[in-house]
Specification:
- This protein is about 20% helix and about 35% strand.
- The chain has 8 helices and 18 strands.
- The chain has helices at about 30-35, 35-40, 45-60, 100-105, 115-120, 180-185, 190-195, 245-250, and strands at about 5-10, 15-20, 25-30, 65, 80, 90-95, 125-130, 140-145, 150, 155-160, 165-175, 175-180, 200-210, 220-225, 230-235, 260-265, 280-285, 290-300.
- The longest helix is centred in the N-terminal third of the chain and has 14 residues, at about 45-60.
């Protein structure tokens, strides 16, 4: 079955564009769709029909690009990927994998009992990560804090959610984190998680309904330094303790998202305590259901 991705990209002749990727081709559907926010609003109560509308727009598209033409660092004079969201905020769920619980306890100076408790608690950990305008896309730079000594990427499956809290698809997320800052005190979590270039998404939104069951897919992380693999690891969505609809329901209990929202669902791959990112590293996250998200690292 062909996977369709809803994407955003920049065309130097026309500015920000909306596309649907089918195979190795991106079809420009901007004139029909308008924006990601508009499509998410229009999907309320009709997710399958809204996806079908996108595929109809593909057949009507008069402009298409090969994926390879977009696969390079952003520049104002060339085609390049943008994050697959526009005005949507990004939230995140924490300690949803056993590996994440262990890692948080390892980094915490007080033994991390708070993380052990939240792993089994009824209420999940949910926190704000980024405004849509702060998110970086494929081949752009993710940041590490200059005042932190222990920085890591966190590869995560990201749920894309419409204003009615219906999950319309998934994308790849990189929840950049400063583990030494978070470990010093749990109250420092916002500083460890929310800073310039701390969130990357892409390359596109793999469209399809999701409810009580996770898409069964591998999540892999590879970090390259000066041409050599410095770290590699992988996990699987069958290791996530909570269900998609449970996380989304808690997120929407006392919040409204009129243009939709993205929810990162936790990290099951965590580099060891001896590893920290450095400027110039390349981070590649692969989720079989979506594709690959690659970013270079810079100091912010």
């Amino acid at each position: 079955m062909t996977q369709h991705l809803l994407v955003r990209f920049f065309d130097p002749r026309a500015g920000v564009r909306i596309g649907v990727q089918t195979g190795v081709t991106v079809h420009d559907v901007t004139e029909t769709v308008g924006s990601v926010a508009a499509w998410l609003r229009g999907s309320v109560g009709r997710v399958d029909a809204a996806i079908a509308d996108l595929l109809t727009a593909v057949h009507a598209s008069r402009q298409a690009h090969l994926v390879d033409a977009l696969n390079h660092a952003p520049a104002p004079d060339c085609l390049h990927w943008l994050p697959p969201i526009d005005v949507q905020d990004v939230w995140a769920a924490g300690v949803t994998y056993e590996r994440s619980r262990i890692a948080r306890q390892e980094e915490a100076r007080d033994g991390g009992d708070v993380y052990a408790r939240v792993y089994t608690a009824e209420r999940p950990e949910l926190f704000f990560k980024a405004h849509g305008a702060w998110v970086v896309g494929p081949h752009d730079r993710v940041g590490i804090r200059r005042d932190a000594a222990w920085n890591v990427p966190e590869p995560e499956l990201a749920l894309v959610i419409n204003p009615a809290l219906e999950i319309v698809g998934v994308t790849i997320g990189n929840d950049m984190s400063s583990r030494d800052i978070e470990g010093e005190n749990p109250l420092y979590l916002p500083q460890a998680k929310i800073y310039t270039r701390s969130c990357a998404l892409g390359p596109g939104i793999a469209l399809g309904r999701i409810g009580a069951a996770w898409p069964q897919t591998r999540i892999a992380l590879q970090i390259t330094r000066e041409g050599d693999v410095a770290f590699a690891g992988e996990t699987h969505t069958d290791q996530i303790r909570r269900s998609p609809d449970e996380l989304v329901a808690y997120l929407g209990r006392a919040l409204a998202f009129p243009d939709g929202v993205v929810l990162l669902t936790g990290a099951g791959v965590v580099p060891p305590e001896t590893f920290t990112l450095a400027a110039g590293d390349e981070v590649r996250i692969t989720i079989d259901a979506v594709g690959a998200l690659q970013n270079s690292v810079t100091v912010v």
